Amino acid sequence: MSIYVLRSDNLVKIGFSDNLRNRVQAIVATVPVPVEFVGHMPGGRDLEAHLHEIFDASHFSGEWFVETEAMRSLFDMVLIPLMPIPETQEEIKRTAEKTDTQKISQQVKDAAVERWPTKSKSEVINALAIDLGWSRTRAKDFFYADPRIALRAYELQEVDKWLCDPAPPGG
């Protein structure tokens, strides 16, 4: 288990997870403003609760706190600033697959916006789902590079074909 700290503007999130990489990626993908990884340290629910108590005067909402100088000083002393390196070959493979999926997702997003410049994001996702033959939910998760998904081999082929096809006239 790990305690992690994320920062967005003057707010910090203090949380814990037994799967640090996935948890941080999920938060970064779902929070609608830029979020940066500050660091992590060993610990679980008890240490997280203790940190929440210490910084209660700065509580903002949920696990988010208004950052103070005392927090910065503590974080500088105790947090490991880099995300841990995956330990097993399987973790390394999954991390690489997710990174590849996120890169491909960005390519598709860029191409879709170019193909359908006058459509809203929701309309682009609907059109993408139709073009790829996917459910709207799958297309949306892929479009927004949800870190929980990885492309299946046949989906990768469909995406490659879609990227190579010229935009339909009047798209």
Notes on the structure:
- It contains 7 helices and 5 strands; from the N terminus they run E-E-H-E-H-E-E-H-H-H-H-H.
- With 171 residues, it is an alpha+beta fold.
- The chain folds into 2 domains: 77 residues; 76 residues, no CATH class.
- The protein has a 5-stranded antiparallel beta sheet, with helices on both faces.
- A hairpin with a 2-residue loop joins strand 1 and strand 2.
- Helix 5 crosses helix 6.
- It starts with a strand and ends in a 7-residue tail after the last helix.
Work out the count of structural domains: 2
Order of helices and strands: EEHEHEEHHHHH
Class by alpha and beta content: alpha+beta
Strands, count = 5
Strands of the widest sheet, in order across it, are: 3-1-2-5-4
Straight-line N-to-C gap: 49 Å
Give the proportion of residues in helices. Answer: 40-55%
The gyration radius over C-alpha positions equals 20 Å
Described by strand count, sense and barrel closure, the largest sheet is:
5 strands, antiparallel
